[in-house]
Write a structure and sequence with these properties.
single chain; alpha/beta; two-stranded antiparallel sheet
Length: about 300
């Protein structure tokens, strides 16, 4: 068993298609199949179930993959630590952004002003395989993260409902979610963290929202509200606060109309100096956002 075999196995296990994995690794499919067969022979067990149209990692394969991930990650961490000691470590940060993505330009430009050599791999629509975190840092609502991550809550923000200034509800400072059952909503696309949260709000209030427009751009949502095309749930801090005189933000009566934003990173992975520096920057950035909101 050698390092190359383990790396090839890891790739096949993640892609679960021999031809595609061979293409990704830039080797022939027969050569890759032979290498996996030799690894299985050495281990004395099959790692994949072969099917007519492909392969699938079996129970033994999943168990072995967990250990291979740990081993290869440890070797990579050792390399990174030595590079960090010499001052030659990569300044790259793999940043998985699952919430507040519209803040990215401001966050990244501010950080790069402090750390001009920083480079970013943004993972805005990424998914992990079998609980393996492919990021250095992850900005999320803390849901659906793997067990081997450490998380800190960096912001807890209230969710408002935004209505046109001409709306009958606009004169009120507060409203119950159930009163919105007959409204036309402007919502984020399904699968977005905030959409899942606000859909849950409506379910708890006993209705399914009538969605008229779907947009993942806060500026577009604001514009549609101003044009009188519907109402929308509106995060109090990360969506920028005031939306002008043509949009009114109403507090929700329900005590659970909040969301938390977390910053997470793999527990058992070495973080380079640049990653640690960016982690500290993110925590401070959101603390400033929260302080600014309190002043307003």
């Amino acid at each position: 068993m050698d390092l190359l075999q383990l790396q090839y196995f890891q790739t096949v296990a993640r892609i679960q298609h021999m031809t595609q994995a061979a293409h990704h690794l830039h080797i022939s499919q027969p050569a890759l199949s032979k290498m996996i067969a030799l690894l299985e022979a050495e281990l004395g067990t099959k790692l994949f179930d072969r099917k007519h149209k492909g392969i699938r990692l079996n129970e033994h394969g999943e168990l072995f993959l967990q250990q291979v991930d740990i081993a290869l990650r440890a070797l990579e961490d050792g390399k990174l630590q030595l590079q960090d000691l010499k001052g030659s470590a990569s300044s790259s940060v793999a940043f998985d952004v699952r919430v507040a993505s519209h803040l990215l330009p401001d966050i990244l430009s501010d950080f790069c002003a402090q750390c001009p050599n920083a480079e970013f791999k943004l993972l805005q629509h990424a998914s992990s395989h079998i609980g393996v975190a492919d990021y250095d840092l992850c900005l999320s609502d803390g849901v659906s993260l793997s067990d081997d991550t450490h998380s800190v809550t960096i912001l807890r923000e209230e969710i408002y409902v935004a209505v046109p200034a001409s709306h009958a509800f606009a004169a009120r400072g507060q409203i119950a979610i159930k009163e919105l059952r007959d409204e036309s909503f402007i919502m984020l696309p399904p699968g977005k963290s905030l959409r899942e949260t606000t859909d849950a709000f409506c379910r708890l209030a006993g209705f399914t929202p009538k969605v008229r427009f779907v947009s993942d751009d806060p500026a577009t949502v604001r514009g549609l509200i101003r044009a009188g095309q519907g109402v929308a749930f509106f995060p109090a801090i990360t969506w920028g606060g005031s939306s002008g005189s043509e949009v009114t933000l109403l507090r929700l009566e329900e005590s659970w109309s909040y969301r938390s934003i977390s910053l997470s990173w793999p527990q058992n992975r070495y973080l380079t100096h640049t990653v640690k520096q960016f982690r500290e920057f993110i925590i401070n950035y959101f603390a400033r956002l929260e302080d600014l909101h309190r002043v307003q």
